[in-house]
User: What shape does this take?
Amino acid sequence: MAPFLPTDSRRVMAIRRLVGFAVLPVVGGLAPLVAVPAIAARFGAEGWRDVALGQSIGAAAAVVVELGWGISGPQRSARQSLGNLRRSVGLALVTQVLVLLPVTAGVWVVAHLVPVGAPALVGWIGTAGALGSVNVVWCWIGLGRPGPILWADTLPRTLPVVVAAVALAAGAPLWVFPLALVVGGLVPVVLGTTLLGIGPATLRQLTPRLVVRAVRIQLQPLLGRVLSATYISVPITLAGVSAPGAVAVFAAADRLQRWALTALKALPTALQGWVGGPADPDRRIRRAWVALWGNVGVGVLVGAGFVVVVPAVSRAFFAGVATVAPDLAVLSGLLVVVVTTSRATGGLVLVALRGVPAITLSAAAGCLVGVPGVLVLARVDGARGAMLGVLSAEAAVLAVQVVAVVVLDRRRRRRVRRATTVLRVAHVRVDDPAYPRNARVRHHLRAAGFAVDVVRRHRGGSVIGRMTRDARTVLGLRGYDVHLLAEMSLVVAPLVALVARLRGGVVVVDRFVGQYETDIDDHGLAAPRSLRALRCRVVDRLAERSADVLLIDTEVRAAALRERVPARTAVVSLPVGAPAWAVPPAVPPAEAGAKAVSRADVAAGAAAGVAAGVAAGVAAGVAAGAAAEAGTLPSGRAAAASGPLRVLFYGHDVPLHGVPVIVSALGEVGRPIRATFVSYASVLERIRAQLHDEGDRVDATLLEPVPAEELATVIANHDVVLGVFGTSDKARSVIPNKVWQGLACGRTVITAASPALAELRPLVGPQLVEVPPGDAEALAGALRAVVDGPVLSDGLWVGTAERLEAYAAARHERFAALLRQRCAARAGA
Assistant: This one.
């Protein structure tokens, strides 16, 4: 339909198209019935029974051969270019022909198993029915063109049957009828492909892989059609098994009712192209609802008329050998209403809502209800029982489809609502909201437009009591789009994942602190082969597999996680970063312009000293100082301060931090150094004991923890911040808080070399000095290289905090974008 046509012209064209689609199915459905009066008059109830059984078997076979193209094809073809359309139709025909061969063999097997008078006749009629589904009608339906259907399909099928009817009335044998059906099935294929321009060139583009893939894709709609055929086309065959004497009357009611339904199919058929035409999915759904209510109204009108006219029509049409009683006509009329409605809910609304699997589910429900219903009720009450069994099957189909439509439409509305509203995040089981990792994640999510609520971890009471309160809190979470489990809470990850998925949320697990690496590697609370270690491993693995998105702190750890988590789980590296307070102290203007050499200026020399030895390190430090005087280094706050090098360590006495390595290195430096250790009282006692072993070689101050905001002042009063020096796997894969904070505060940071630091090297350059893990002598050499600079002053690196923050912010922005994608996908699932 051309978009530039006036509204009246478009309306006229739409009406013509609707009329065309209404007339064509009526004519096409009437074609097989043209010969029925002659068959009934000449061959009686037994001849009509064999023909009806053959048509029933052929209709079921046709559904399989059709491969579901009639469901998925029309709305797809409405939006395709001509070249793609030809390939799609060619692909459909090739796949249908491949399926036709084994299905035909099955038709003949069934024809010889069912009790009939002429099995060969039934077999040929069934074969013709299967062949009839190989066509291109669905393409013309999607394009909204009833004309080609008339000339290339309906008339070529109808004319041979009309000729056969005349021949039968003149005394021809019954074999004329299946011959006419076979001819009527072959000619439309030739005409349809010719009109579309499908030739050898098109078929050569269809590789075996493409054909196999197409069959696999069509299996979903095919399964639904196969199941539906079981309760639509097979009931006559089932009735023939349970009540052979009722087949003639039941087949008469079924054929007339199916003929009416064939005529009514014009409305959803004509509307498929209209519904599937817009590119906007919301417009397609609105049109599908309009089409649904139109079908319901028409179905009610036709069903009521069917009840009135069918008894008289059946008496005349079947020559008195199969008259439909009024009560059977009422059941048939109700069936017309139910089927007309389910055609719209399934073929229009559910397809528009992308709910094709629900069509299959509804067909399965109809099959489960219909097959035993027809078998049992036909034996109990003959034709009426068989019709009641079919009606119950169609009612089950409609019920399942209505439920699916309601559920899918609610999901769609929720998805639209989420797209226009703020996404809500529950930060679950947070132990310390001020912890830098927690605060940074929430800060960036809020900056990206998310609304974040903190759900605190319960404290106090017994372990079981705390876990019970935590579980009650998690189960009470409602209305959140994202459930973000905080670090050190991996044990409740499966419960959080269950609650989130039941409520349509995305599960994010912060894997920053693993149970095994904390309890076993860091604190040594149990042996690696103990039951506690096994429990820690299980907790870690269950948490990893519970997540839709896993958060970790470095790319090295992210790569390791990606190797063991499911492909559906996204692993995101979110840098620890530095908190807002971690910035260099203000620089007085007078000092900012000075040219004296700073300790930071010789940090590059310290790094070189690690690799080349102490003497080379001193020389490198001197060269670095000269370079700073020439203005070539990015550092440079000068100060008159001199004296011992001020070294700071803060943290815990765990293997990761390597405190014994630090104390030993301080004792070996042999230069004036003043060290400060900040930790908990119990840790300070152990450090004091280690310092005692070094005698008076180390000038050290021990401080208990200070608030986070005051830590910036502590760092500002030191020249060098020490990182971690352990040799564990964790030490080689993490970038600790103190490294980020010391760098952001503009201080030189010395820490153990690790692959994880590759992320920071381009951002900080020689401000970061790396030494071999666990090597006290190398650490001592690095410190000597700094001390032995030509002029000692209070060193400060400028601009590092901004670069580190920009790097961390970019990673968090990518995480926020991924969350939005996952929320949209979950809402539309």
